[in-house]
Design brief:
Layout (H helix, E strand, L loop, with lengths): L1 E5 L4 E4 L2 E3 L3 H12 L7 H8 L7 H14 L10 E4 L3 E4 L4 E3 L19 E5 L33 E13 L2 H8 L1 H21 L3 E6 L2 E6 L8 H22 L10 E14 L6 E6 L3 H11 L4 E4 L1 H7 L3 E7 L10 E8 L21 H15 L4 E6 L6 H12 L5 E6 L10 H11 L7 H14 L5 H11 L5 H6 L2 H22 L2 E6 L6 H11 L7 E7 L13 E5 L5 H12 L6 H11 L3 H14 L10 H12 L3 H13 L2 E3 H8 L3 H13 L3 E5 L5 E4 L2 H9 L3 H18 L3 H4 L1 H11 L2 H17 L3 H16 L5 H22 L4 H16 L6 H14 L3 H14 L5 H17 L3 H15 L4 H8 L3 H15 L3 H15 L5 H18 L2 H18 L2 H17 L3 H17 L6 H14 L3 H18 L5 H14 L5 H17 L3 H17 L3 H13 L8 H10 L2
Helix pairs in contact: 1-3, 4-5, 5-6, 12-13, 13-15, 17-19, 20-24, 21-23, 21-24, 25-27, 27-28, 28-29, 28-30, 29-30, 30-31, 31-32, 32-33, 32-34, 33-34, 34-35, 34-37, 35-37, 37-38, 37-39, 38-39, 39-40, 39-41, 40-41, 41-42, 41-43, 42-43, 43-44, 43-45, 44-45, 45-46, 45-47, 46-47, 47-48, 47-49, 48-49
């Protein structure tokens, strides 16, 4: 396509067709074209094209999006304008310039604008630009106004709703019986009855059916208790319909009865782009279908609930479980027949005992209540307000207090306010009256009247007017007669006075407790009654207990006899107790337990519901979604917000649990004062709190689950759009994030669906974690990078990114799991396959190095030798690190084969180059310092060859070099290798000290390989020190843990140490059995550096048997001697010779002892103070 830009006309055309573009966006494009030879920053664009006005980043980004769209480009392809992260933008398409005769500056803010001209060009998908290394998508459109005063509208959000479907049981049969005209009139009345019942509980009739209705609760009016309201509406509708049938004289048979299905699920609620009002509803899954299916299953006059609805309504409804057969479902579903509505008392009364978790962490609150109860019994009335967020345990505290009072036999009256009762006068007050007088649901008016009269007489109130006043409150008596004598206000006052007197007089007989829960939903009239009652509490034995949420303040709390108890989060120990008791017998891993404790944040209800999810799902990993019951509570709080703070909360949830004011402002693009006002509203609602009061304010969600709920309420497309926007702003406006928090950028790009960018930042985050020795975290980050790449098409670019990720992943895996695990093998094998596809890839050396680690430590020495030769052959002569590592691995391989002198040559060559490198560079590139390994391995070889002082010197040099290294993995290996060397020097104390340091480092940082080997040599040292049982157990533990890492290289050596230890503790037969395994392992691995010691120890154990096998022992000592000579290992030869000489001395072969030992002793030139040479000298003494 040909695009032509006419500067004079400020037009863009594509193949001759004009493309719409606003003037300011056109200026941006011209400026980029004029400066196409460089990157233009956002600050420069702002200064050059908007000054003196200051504009936000999102205004600039929106204009850039418009420019791209005008020339057929987008944020994914970036063929025309590329985003250079942390720097700005650059125009990259090829153009042709056509200059007319006349010329004048086009953009006045440019110092030296080119003459007036037309640009025409073809946008080339393959436009090369080697300097531009990374591509970033642009942000989504936003309003280009400089300072919008309103929040951006969201396209829609997920809402939890309850669907009620009600139809006649058999409309056709009923119509046939009563005729079409009567049926028509009847259906009109049915519609009226249904509408009133639905609207009474703030539901919405979504659509009318031929013979029924479909209603929704929870939209458009947000309702925390939408499930409870739907069930209440169903019972109300059913009862009113029955009453109507009786009234119009239609037989109440099965045809005319209603059948109702109720299901709780999710929908998507759309938002109007013009006025922000809800305008569309889309079901998520089978939300509506399940309600209709339940209705079809319901019989006449039945109300069927789904499992989700039943869980939401809890003990409010008495239900009966029914198993329904279904040909379309694998397992028959359980549905619930709602038989009747329970009381509005505490839901804990309805819970079966096993569901109630242990009551902990509220002892002080209970003590306070009991102290106040003591005052009440003495005639000093009290009012107690229990305040706490939903789920914090207000009802449970009242429940436990009520249980404690049971033995003291007070009068205890309960009531609770409900969300749909705020406009219904007297609702909690009438509950107290019904409870106090003992009404039942089936009581007729006459029975109620009698009970009221009896209750009043019992407390000394005998006038009939008082009976009428209370009947008036209950709605049983027609108020016409009363109103003729009293006005409405006086009538209410008389009714209140009568009820108050009934309660006060009752307290004279026995102390009275009045419990009113959820006072934040109280209606004004009931609040007025309670306020009047509180004024009369002084001098009477009444305890008024009320509970409410933050944000509500009872009008009487300034009284001297009023106490407020705040329900705070449980501490960690109490939270764990609640969780474990709620889990009952269910198993829960330590990781999952910690996850649940962290996200519940001390909220007992959250803990119980999360535990219930684990029990139901048998989950071993953290739940991916918030349980429905918790969502209901949290969404209720979110939905009570006005639209602007609510949208701010949702967008903040996309940013993360913590968010700075500067970032919020950049993302949302509101004036600072407007944004701060909205944040203050959220803080006042206790949804967020300020975590930094200095310099730049930072805000955090008060609850992790609140953030997750707000986040999940948004559409995926909305979340992706904002994740993309946030990532771009972090790159361009907060560029330090690129180096300090690359994982944050990776997260946002991942969630936005930009996988190439995500993989880049996951790699950066993984490398940063490795550099700081956070290896477990590095594995997680790098695997996230691989997951991002998996969504991209195969090709060289993806393969190169994967190679970089796998090279770093291999380093981290080796550290936290060991060298020889299947994870390490799979990782490096995959990397090698990729490397073969990308010829001469620079990472070849590191990949083969990683493969050697697996095969070498696994004990597959022939393969390890081939790989080491490849490294020596391919090592770049100019790359000192490659030279050192290639020679180190060749030396290690040859050493384990027993070719000590050849191995030493390779080590010496590497050591000669080692001083030229900075050690931290080696650790960064390869994850460990092989130069140190060269020093320590060569130290061991020098000891074997008969140079113990030179060996000690190299050991010390390694410690000198590592002093300032600050690399825990290399330090742990250093202390282990040095301890290993000291085993041969027989310096038991040095072994203990250095092995303990290796154990501490490995335990702290999680290095299982070095931990296992250090335990083994530490156990050997304990045995030598006389702690035989303890040392042998630790040696066995080290060997077992080493085997668990998959390692076999050197394992036979540790088995030799174990055999020696068994001999020390008097169990030579066990030692001989271990040596059989060691010998087999050595042959399988082609590992022979320890063969001399194996035969020597075997001879020693044979001599410890009863009777000793002297002949076989001598044969083994001779074999050890011969092997050591072949390996030129003078020190091992000396040990074998001394063992043989001790045997000969007992057999009176003094001359043979002297000849063998003196000749060998004379070949040593140093180390005469070492234990072995001292012992040899003593054997030579006459």
């Amino acid at each position: 396509m040909n695009y032509k830009v006419n500067v004079d006309a400020q037009e863009i055309s594509c193949d001759g067709v004009r493309v719409a573009i606003r003037p300011q966006a056109f200026k941006v494009m011209i400026y980029l074209i004029e400066n196409r030879n460089r990157v233009v920053s956002m600050n420069e664009l702002s200064e050059q094209l908007w000054a003196p006005k200051v504009v936000s980043d999102s205004t600039l980004i929106s204009c850039m999006k418009e420019v791209r769209r005008a020339v057929g480009d987008d944020g994914h392809a970036q063929r025309t304008i590329r985003t250079i992260h942390g720097r700005g933008y650059r125009f990259v398409a090829s153009i042709e310039v056509d200059c007319p005769a006349s010329a004048r500056p086009v953009v006045e803010t440019v110092a030296e604008a080119e003459p007036r001209q037309c640009w025409s060009g073809v946008i080339d998908d393959q436009t090369p630009d080697r300097e531009i290394r990374e591509e970033r998508p642009t942000l989504p459109d936003s309003a280009c106004s400089d300072a919008p005063s309103e929040m951006p509208l969201l396209a829609g959000e997920y809402k939890s709703v309850t669907v009620l479907v009600c139809r006649l049981a058999d409309a056709k049969a009923l119509a046939a019986q009563i005729g079409p005209e009567v049926m028509h009139a009847l259906m009109q009345q049915f519609a009226n009855v249904s509408l009133k019942a639905i609207q009474c509980f703030e539901g919405t009739v979504r659509r009318a059916l031929d013979d029924g209705i479909e209603a929704l609760f929870g939209v458009p009016t947000e309702l925390e208790d939408h499930a409870q309201r739907a069930v209440q509406a169903a019972f109300t509708l059913s009862q009113h319909w029955r009453d109507l049938l009786v009234e119009i004289n239609i037989n109440e048979d099965n045809w005319a009865a209603v059948t109702i299905g109720i299901h709780t699920g999710q929908i998507i609620q759309g938002t109007s782009l013009t006025n922000g009002q809800p305008f569309t509803l889309t079901a998520v899954g089978d939300t509506f279908e399940l309600a209709h299916r339940l209705r079809r299953w319901a019989g006449p006059d039945m109300i069927l609930l789904s499992e989700k609805t039943r869980r939401r309504v809890g003990g409010m409804v008495r239900v009966e479980a029914i198993e329904k057969s279904s040909s379309t479902m694998a397992s028959p579903p359980i549905v619930y027949w709602a038989r009747s509505i329970g009381s509005r008392r505490s839901p804990l009364r309805e819970l079966s005992k096993p569901r109630v978790s242990r009551f902990v962490g509220r002892e002080l609150e209970l003590i306070e209540l009991e102290k106040l109860w003591t005052q009440v019994k003495q005639g000093r009335g009290q009012v107690v307000g229990i305040i706490g967020e939903p789920g914090m345990g207000k009802s449970r505290l009242l429940y436990e207090f009520r249980r404690r009072l049971k033995r003291k036999r007070p009068i205890y009256l309960e009531s609770r306010c409900v969300a749909y009762g705020h406009a219904t006068p007297y609702l909690p007050v009438l509950d107290l009256l019904r409870h106090g007088c003992g009404f039942t649901a089936t009581d007729a008016a006459e029975t109620i009247t009698a009970k009221i009269r009896d209750s009043l007489k019992e407390v000394g109130i005998k006038d009939e007017a008082s009976v009428r006043y209370l009947l008036y409150l209950l709605g049983i008596m027609d108020p016409t007669e009363l109103l003729m004598n009293l006005g409405p206000q006086l009538l209410k006052a008389q009714a209140f006075q009568t009820l108050g007197q009934l309660l006060i007089n009752s307290s004279w007989q026995r102390p009275l407790v009045l419990e009113v829960e959820d006072l934040h939903w109280i209606d004004p009239t009931s609040e007025e009654f309670l306020q009047g009652l509180v004024a009369q509490l002084f001098g009477v034995s009444i305890l008024l207990l009320v509970s409410y949420r933050p944000g509500y303040k009872p009008p009487w709390m300034d009284k001297s006899f009023a106490t407020q108890i705040t329900m705070r989060p449980l501490n960690s120990a109490d939270s764990l107790t609640v969780l474990q008791s709620a889990l009952k017998a269910a198993t829960c891993s330590k990781h999952l337990t910690q996850h649940l404790l962290r996200i519940a944040e001390g909220n007992p209800f959250f803990l119980e519901e999360l535990a219930q999810m684990v029990v139901q799902q048998s989950a071993q990993e953290p739940p991916l979604t918030v349980p429905d019951t918790i969502q209901a509570v949290l969404l209720g709080r979110i939905d009570r917000l006005s639209p602007e703070p609510k949208r701010l909360l949702q967008i903040a949830a996309i940013i993360g649990k913590e968010h700075s004011l500067a970032l919020l402002q950049a993302v949302i693009d509101l004036p600072k004062e407007v944004l701060q006002d909205q944040l203050e509203r959220l803080r006042a609602a206790e949804l967020i709190y300020t975590t930094s009061l200095f310099s730049e304010p930072t805000y955090s969600f008060k609850h992790a689950l609140m953030r997750e709920t707000a986040y999940q309420s948004l559409l995926l497309s909305t979340r992706q759009e904002y994740h993309q926007r946030i990532a771009q702003i972090l790159e361009l406006r907060f560029s330090e994030t690129i180096t300090t928090q690359p994982e944050l950028l990776a997260h946002h790009y991942t969630e936005a669906g930009y996988n190439a960018q995500a993989a880049h930042y996951w790699l950066s985050a993984g490398q940063r974690a490795i550099d700081r020795s956070f290896d477990k975290e590095a594995v997680v980050l790098l695997k996230r990078g691989l997951e991002s790449l998996a969504a991209l098409p195969e090709g060289p670019e993806r393969f190169q990114q994967e190679l970089a990720l796998r090279c770093n992943l291999g380093i981290a895996l080796v550290r936290i799991k060991g060298y020889a695990t299947e994870d390490v093998k799979h990782n490096y094998s995959r990397a090698k396959n990729l490397c073969d596809q990308l010829e001469n890839f620079p990472l070849f050396f590191k990949i083969v190095f990683g493969l050697w680690m697996y095969y070498g430590i696994s004990g597959v020495i022939p393969t390890a030798l081939q790989l080491a030769r490849q490294l020596v052959d391919r090592a770049d002569e100019g790359d000192t690190a490659q030279f050192i590592y290639a020679h180190a691995l060749m030396g290690i391989t040859l050493f384990h084969q027993g070719k000590m002198t050849v191995a030493l040559k390779y080590f010496d060559k590497a050591i000669a180059q080692y001083s030229q490198l900075q050690q931290p560079e080696l650790c960064v590139q390869y994850g460990q310092d092989c130069g140190l390994a060269c020093l320590l391995y060569s130290a061991h070889i020098l000891w074997c060859l008969g140079y113990p002082e030179q060996a000690i010197s190299r050991d010390r040099k390694a410690f000198e070099l590592v002093e300032n290294l600050s690399h825990p993995f290399s330090e742990a290996s250093l202390f282990y290798f040095s301890a290993w060397n000291q085993v041969y020097h027989r310096d038991v104390q040095a072994v203990l000290v250095k092995a303990e340091k290796a154990i501490r480092l490995s335990t702290k940082h999680g290095f299982p390989y070095w931990l296992a080997e250090a335990k083994a040599v530490h156990g050997w040292a304990l045995v030598q020190n006389g702690a035989g049982t303890e040392g042998t157990a630790e040696l066995e533990e080290g060997i077992m843990e080493l085997s668990a890492t998959g390692a076999k290289l050197g394992l036979c050596y540790f088995l030799i140490l174990l055999a020696e230890a068994y001999g020390k503790v008097g169990n030579p037969d066990a030692g001989l059995g271990v040596l059989v395994k060691a010998s087999q392992l050595a042959n399988d691995n082609d590992e022979h550096f320890h063969d001399a010691e194996l035969f020597r120890i075997k001879g020693e154990l044979l001599l410890q048997r009863a009777p000793p096998d002297v002949r076989q022992a001598e044969i083994h000592f001779q074999e050890a001697l011969e092997i050591a000579r072949c390996q030129q290992a003078k020190s091992l030869e000396l040990r074998a010779a001394m063992a043989l000489c001790r045997l000969w001395q007992s057999g009176n072969k003094r001359d043979q002892v002297y000849r063998l030992l003196s000749e060998l002793y004379s070949r040593f030139t140093e180390g005469f103070d070492s234990p072995d040479l001292k012992e040899a000298k003593a054997l030579l003494a006459p």
